[in-house]
Sequence to fold (384 residues):
Amino acid sequence: MYCIASEITTMKIFSNFDGGNINVVKADSPEDIQLTIPNDNQSEYYQWFHFRLETQAQEEHTVKLLNLAKSAYPEGWQGYDVVASYDRDEWFRIPAEFDGDTLTFRFFPEQGSMYFAYFAPYTYDRHQDLLHQAQVNFNCQLETLGSTLDNNDMSLLTIGEPADDKKKVWVIARQHPGETMAEWFIEGLLQRLLDETDTVGRALLDKAVFYIVPNMNPDGGIRGHLRTNAAGVNLNREWQTPSMEKSPEVFLVRERMLETGIDMFLDIHGDEAIPYNFVAGSEGIPSYDERHANLENKFKQALHTITPEFQDEYGYDKDKPGKANLTVCSNWVAEQFKCLSYTVEMPFKDHNAQPDALYGWSPERSLAFGHDMLAATLAVIDDV
Ligand SMILES: [Zn+2]
Fold:
């Protein structure tokens, strides 16, 4: 979208691609590149950035991302290191400093072209690969529930033979499209569920049918949004009264949920500020009771046992009894279906219990966390 070529250097910045998002304020010298992040369409939110820099390799560059005090999560930039790649496969971290409004980072490019993003992107093309690599497996159906406002597909994978005596497990991801770690997580969960040599998946499919929506917000993902769909709507506040005009993504998925029923639910997200993996439960819903609390504890204990990538000390404040916001998906599901229902949060920064200075939280660790979450699901499947 932006192409700046001065006479002094040949620096160019591009964002006219799937998930691209940046605004160039100044880019006439490598020591002083100034950028801002455009808002999600028809929205006050901005935080997701993704661009390509073409420039002189082996020369020092300084980039300043400006105006972040008014971004969706200013605290998200504190302790955040920028994600970058030369080959669009390995995404490493570049240390950054935040002064409350500007994020500054310095680097010497090893190559003449370099990508930068808020987190490792998960493209619409890779999303289609994921769906179609899944559908060739035995017992996996790919179905289009309908279309989004930008006319993209709302896709559902059904895995396992639906039967009345089987548990119904729903997993959805990327209501907030910039939280790309959520779809990396789904890729891991699907790998394990569909791996015929892995008995965790086989044992689960003996007992349960999985309904998986890997990308709840394809429009936002393609547009380079952090938090909203094409019409600027935060889908995770639409679950009580969705509409085909404003939030078809939620309307279509919710209709199918009401048809199938739900015994267990996971809604996969990323958190901008908190440098840990954690889950948020349904303690504030009107019907919350001892059974529900016991299920939540059993699931969390299983996760603790399975992986050090989970902890339960840092996370969101718990809702007071009866005070849950029922427009939020996991609360709406928990109340509607009286079932175990968690929002799962992974960090944009790192899981500080197991930090990694070179990569931070990464696609690979998101995939592994998806594997582990499936094992924890097996630990509770007889009880849900
Ligand atoms: Zn989210």
